[in-house]
Design brief:
The structure is a single chain. This protein has five helices and eight strands; from the N terminus they run αβαβαααββββββ. With about 210 residues, the chain is of the alpha+beta class. Among the domains are: about 40 residues, no CATH class; about 80 residues, no CATH class. It has a six-stranded antiparallel beta sheet. A two-stranded parallel ribbon has the order 1-2. A hairpin with a 4-residue loop joins β4 and β5.
C-alpha cells in the first residue's frame, strides 16, 4: 500500500530466505490477497538471495564501524543501520550511472547538507518549561543518532538518564565523541562550530546541493 500511494507502483514479487518470520498464515494470506508472488531461497543456500544478503552485510559492516569509531555500544545498532541506509540512499552509485537511489525515485538530487557524523556531540537548548529551575543549565550535551524519519528532527540521546529526544535545532561538534574515553576530539577542530538546522527533505530539485563523502 505504501509503494502504491507514494510511488504509483505495485509489488509483483517478494524474495526472502524462507525465514520463520515469513511463514505465518497472516503474512501468506496478505501476499495472496495482494497478488504478490512469493519466492524463497533453498535452506542453507544464501547465494540464491545474494543481492539482499550482500547488501545486509554491507549495512552491518558500516554500522559496526560507526559504533566502534564513536565508542557507542552494540545496542545502538538500530540507529546506526538507519543512518547508514539514510546516507546510502543519498550516495551516488556506479551501477546507477553515478546517480543516487533517492534521485531515481524522486527525480531530483537529494539534499545532503543536513548530514552529520553519527555519534558526534550535539548541544541543545531545551525549552524553559522542561528545565527544573531557573538555575539549571541552559545547554544540554547529547549524542547525535541520526535523522528522525517523517519530520525535520534529529535523534539525540541524553546520556545521564538514557533518554531519547528529537530536536530540530542543535549545534554539532562533528569531531568530538563524548562517549569515548576522555571525550577528546579524534582530530583537531578547525574553525568555530556552526549551528545546524535540519532542512526539510524535498522531492523537487533544490536550489543547490551540497556534496559530502561518506
Amino acid at each position: 500500500m505504501y509503494v502504491q500511494n507514494q510511488h504509483s507502483a505495485s509489488i509483483k514479487g517478494w524474495m526472502s530466505d524462507a525465514g520463520g518470520e515469513y511463514k505465518s498464515k497472516a503474512f501468506g494470506q496478505l501476499m495472496h490477497d495482494q497478488g504478490i508472488h512469493v519466492y524463497e531461497s533453498a535452506p542453507h543456500t544464501p547465494q540464491q538471495n545474494s543481492r539482499a544478503e550482500q547488501f545486509i552485510c554491507t549495512l552491518m559492516d558500516k554500522a559496526q564501524a560507526m559504533c566502534l569509531h564513536t565508542c557507542l555500544p552494540a545496542s545502538y545498532w538500530e540507529f546506526a543501520v538507519q543512518h547508514v541506509v539514510h546516507v546510502y540512499n543519498r550516495t551516488t552509485k556506479r551501477g546507477l550511472n553515478w546517480r543516487t537511489p533517492h534521485e531515481l525515485i524522486y527525480k531530483a538530487p537529494p539534499m545532503v547538507s543536513h548530514l552529520c557524523v553519527f555519534g558526534c556531540t550535539a548541544y541543545v537548548h531545551p525549552p524553559a518549561d522542561t528545565r527544573r529551575g531557573k538555575l539549571q543549565p541552559k545547554l544540554q550535551l547529547m549524542i547525535y543518532l541520526g535523522n528522525a524519519p517523517g519530520n525535520e528532527c534529529n535523534y539525540l540521546f541524553m546520556c545521564p538518564n538514557n533518554a531519547l529526544h528529537t530536536y530540530a535545532h542543535a549545534v554539532f561538534d562533528e569531531n568530538l565523541f563524548s562517549r569515548c574515553s576522555g571525550a577528546r576530539p579524534h582530530k583537531p577542530v578547525s574553525g568555530p562550530v556552526q549551528p545546524h538546522i535540519h532542512p526539510k527533505e524535498r522531492s523537487h530539485p533544490p536550489s543547490e546541493v551540497a556534496g559530502k563523502d561518506f
